[in-house]
Amino acid sequence: MSNPPLKLAVIVGSIRDGRFGPTVADWFARQAGQREDITVDVIDLADFPLPLVMPAFGQKPDPETAEIHRRLGERLAASDAFAVVTPEYNHTVTPALSNAINWYMDQWMAKPVGLISYGGMGGGLRAAEHLRQIFAEVHAVTVREMLSFHNAWSHFHKDGEPVSPEGSEGAAKSLLDQLAWWGNALRQARAEHPYKR
Q1: How confident is the model at residue 162 (pLDDT cuts 50, 70, 90)?
Q2: Is residue 84 assigned to a domain?
Q3: What CATH number does residue 142 fall under?
Q4: Residue 60 pLDDT > 80
Q5: How many angstroms separate the CA atoms of 41 and 134, rounded?
Q6: From the CB of residue 17, how many other CB atoms can be counted at a distance below 10 Å?
Q7: Burial profile 66-100: b = 16 or more Cβ within 10 angstroms, e = fewer
Q8: Is the confidence at residue 2, as pLDDT, over 80?
């Protein structure tokens, strides 16, 4: 019996004006969308403005924040795997992405995360390496393969397609193959033995 398609959330991790993240995220979502074993949900953190000030333990957020938290939480919870698209700010993760991760725990647990970074000469690699530590703390599993676009602005045409698609598409396939393997394995494991932290 074949597995149902894996639900992959592609998360746009930058909310800065003039950001390049949606170009990279949309391209990766198109790569994932070509597969029969994956369905894609693009989650743009700009659509979920969670505040930096979090409520104290045991307290509920204000109604507006609670609604934002509920909407994003439902989409994260429905996902079997994540592909996080991130630039690098001051050698680390963007504040919006770090904040979004911190607002949740159960939604990330026992699910695989693929990392797609972009930037200047460093290609966002330092942010990606920091994310491996952060996701481990919320009980998620980052996969080995990743994509990194160095000097990303010169690697995409204005229509959002890569200048060198053969290399980019091959790297995307490798990442998606690992996400699919881990996503299916962990989905089955969660169903048979609910994960507890």
Answers
A1: confident
A2: yes
A3: 3.40.50.360
A4: yes
A5: 22
A6: 6
A7: eebbeebeeebeebbbbbbbbbbbeebbbebbbbb
A8: no
Question: Is 1 inside a domain boundary?
Answer: no
How many domains is the chain built from? 1
Give me the count of residues in the chain.
197
Within a domain: residue 14?
A: yes
CA dihedral 130, 190, 171, 40 (to 10 degrees): -100
Q: Which two tokens stand for residue 178?
A: 């690992």
pTM of the model: 0.95
Q: Is residue 182 domain-resident?
A: yes
> Structural domain of residue 34, as residue ranges?
6-192
What secondary structure letter does DSSP report for 59? P
CB 14 within 8 A of CB 96: yes
Kindly give the pairing relationship between strand 81-86 and strand 38-44: unpaired
